[in-house]
Hints:
By secondary structure, this protein is mainly α. It has helices spanning 7-21, 31-36, 41-47, 49-58, 64-76, 80-91, 95-104, 112-124, 131-147, 153-170, 174-189, 196-210.
Amino acid sequence: MNKTYTWKQRKTLESYFRCLSSVCIESNTLPFYFTNYEFTMIRDRFIGKRFFKKVRKKWNIQNAQDLKNQIYWFLNEGVRQEFDKYRHHLSALSEATRTEYLASLSEEHPDYAKLYLANQGIHTLPPAGIMAFDLAWCIYLCRIGRLFHDLTKEEAWNLMMYAAKLAQQSYGNWNEYMNAFLLGRRFEESKITISSRTRDARSYIVTLFSEPKSPLLKLEWNHPLFASIDIVNHNQRLPH
């Protein structure tokens, strides 16, 4: 892996991966820091011990195998699978019928929030839907897995490259990607109202686009990935 890239290429790609994934960080102070700097064991055992534990709890990750299973779930299925089911159901209806159907549902209906958000996605997202949410989490878990040696550096790198390529193929620019992530986050939370976590993520994204020193402003969306990623099997499913 290391021999494939120059030092500068690798450094730039690591920054690109951080821009794609740091939006997953559930904090109002750390995301921008961890967009500029990669996780390190010595520093982040103090900064992020509780922080990384929270991530593992969120996705029920107990060990290295759980982490790998979760990463491949994001690549193969993800939250987008359920979103696409609702969106497909609604897309079969005319605009007027969709509006009437949603209006007929009580907000207490168990599927109301997800139907509402899927309908919003019909108007605002490209065909990939909320895949950005899954890809961001895939890359983010790869970064954590690499830090704690649940993944080898090569495994993590190849998976992040694959996810980045999927992101570039699925979205036309940073705006599309970030908008899809935010809607995906709301869908995963199953809430129409915007939670404090989503507000923090949205605030972080605004910072990425407006802060003069933001690394995102230095990176084109279609940043070259330099090498083939065919070695990663998107359909690989790890044993439970």
